[in-house]
Amino acid sequence: MAAEDQDRNPPDDALDSPAEAPTDDAPVDEPDEADEANEASEADEADEPSEPNEADDADDADDASEASEAPEASEAPEAEPGPPRARRLWTAAIVTIVLLVADLWTKQWAWDNLRQGPTREVIPDWLYFEFGFNTGSAFSLLRDASWSRLLFIGITLLALVYMGYLAKTLPTRFGSAFVAIAMVASGALGNLHDRFMRTMVVDGQERYGVVDFIKVFYWRDKPWPTFNVADVALVAGVLLLLLFLLRHGDVLDAEAKARAEEQRLREEEERKERLQKMSRLPLHPEHPFLERGFIITAVMKVKEEGRTWWRTTRGGYLDAAKVYRRAPPKVLALGQELGEGVGFPFGFIGDDKEPVFGRQEDGKLRRVGSLEYRTYVQGVELVTEGDHQYVRTADDRFVRVSDLRFAEPQSRPEGVAEDERWVDVDLKQQLLVAYEGDRPVFTTLISSGRKGTKEEPFDTPTGTFRIKTKHVSSSMDGNTASDGNYSIQDVPWAMFFEGSYALHGAFWHTGFGGRRSHGCINLAVGDARWLFWWVRPDLPEGWHGAAAHEGAPGTVVVVR
């Protein structure tokens, strides 16, 4: 499972040091092929001026013609241009206003003249004006439900939003569609007005409703439910829209697909330009140049025409004379496995030459030596002497707790079983402890996110997480204002717990115990390897990566 993950952790000293080329038998972790690739390209251009190649020109011309012809195959037939959208919108607005005014005026007339009066005959046996107050919807649906008003208001607002979307996106050459949109909008607004403003006592309760007054007998003595001008506009608009979609739906669909394809091609071009500008993807076909400080891995040397090349794991080639080998890390592991019966207190020396004390015959503690930075101290008990607390070791030596990156016992997170594995990361102490239930089984120093700026923070996120994915190696790259572009191929033992934040090995620095990353939790390579095989999800044999899922959740990681 390949992973190209964006880490917030650049190679801090790789950005300051020259790139190094791997030797035949050394580990092939290489910085600075950017150097080499850029210099190689410049040298080639200087030494061998290129001449026009007619065959290449012909190929380029063919490619250009093919590129120009390709879009035509996927595009829909070119549509005739319509009038400016503003004109269509003005037309729709005028139609909406006229119909809305007509609806509100006729409703007010019915309210004033028909509410208490008799039915008025307009066309005998067919059309009458008769007052009606509808607290429901068409055909008096839900008229008795107290919540129906809110439901219909919500539906009306959604319909108005959709009409606005159509008015913004439909081709302007279809004038009838804009008239239909206006009719639907006017009908919706007219009835919406009544649902907010009109009230009447119905069955002893004051209810909101819509004024209806048009009564039509469609067959002898069979009347259609009473309606209003807004209903007429609404129904006519919907029918007109349906007719429009039946006639022009295929054309609209083809045009929409063509626009989507144009947008995709435009975004692809923008992406290519952005990648080229940032130079973030070493040896990518779209931008085959590296920057100084980039770290790559190589697998073999190749000699051709008197020059030696390194072949990278990505299949690219770099001039061996322009690449510098990075030496193996000086600190391969700091961690300590804690066996059965071994536990707290413990820690690591937090600074260079910290004192060690021994108890003298008079019972007082006196300095008897010193310990180097990051020396592991395993205690048997805590002892308080004067103003200091000490860790007493098995050989009766004493180290001040204040001189240690000291591990304090932590309670199991909520939901973690008594024998379940979990990881505690103490950012203040820059210390990691792996637990099985309540028992610590492994500890080591880490390097978390360094101090950034308000605009560009590098803080490691705190909280309770789970390992989401883990990969034997993962390429990490990015761009920061303070460090510029950075890229590291094959970062070892990567365990992602939150977005692009991961626990992983770091071979480009040895600053464990101090903050220096872009947010990830750096470990010595050997410690990262131990943790990688210990945490869940398990990695099947022969696999490069694994992802947690509901049936196999990742190990809990507490960062505090």
What does this 3D model show about the protein?
With 560 residues, the chain is an alpha+beta fold. Among the domains are: 85-258, no CATH class; 345-406, SH3 type barrels (Roll), CATH 2.30.30; 421-559, L,D-transpeptidase catalytic domain-like (Beta Barrel). It is built from seven helices and 28 strands. Strands 14-13-17-16-15-12-18 form a seven-stranded antiparallel β-sheet, with no helix packed on it. Helix 3 packs parallel to helix 5. The model is unreliable at 1-77 and 278-284 (pLDDT under 50).
Number of helices: 7
Mean pLDDT: 82
Q: How does the overall form come out from the CA principal axes?
A: elongated
Could you tell me how far the N terminus lies from the C terminus, measured between alpha carbons in angstroms?
31 Å
Radius of gyration of CA atoms, rounded to a whole number: 38 Å
Spans of at least 5 consecutive residues whose pLDDT stays below 50 are 1-77, 278-284
Derived from helix and strand composition plus strand pairing, the structural class reads: alpha+beta
Query: Approximately what portion of the residues adopt beta-strand conformation?
Result: 25-35%
Helix share of residues? Answer: 25-40%
> Strand tally, please?
28
Strand line-up of the largest beta sheet: 14-13-17-16-15-12-18
The largest sheet is: 7 strands, antiparallel
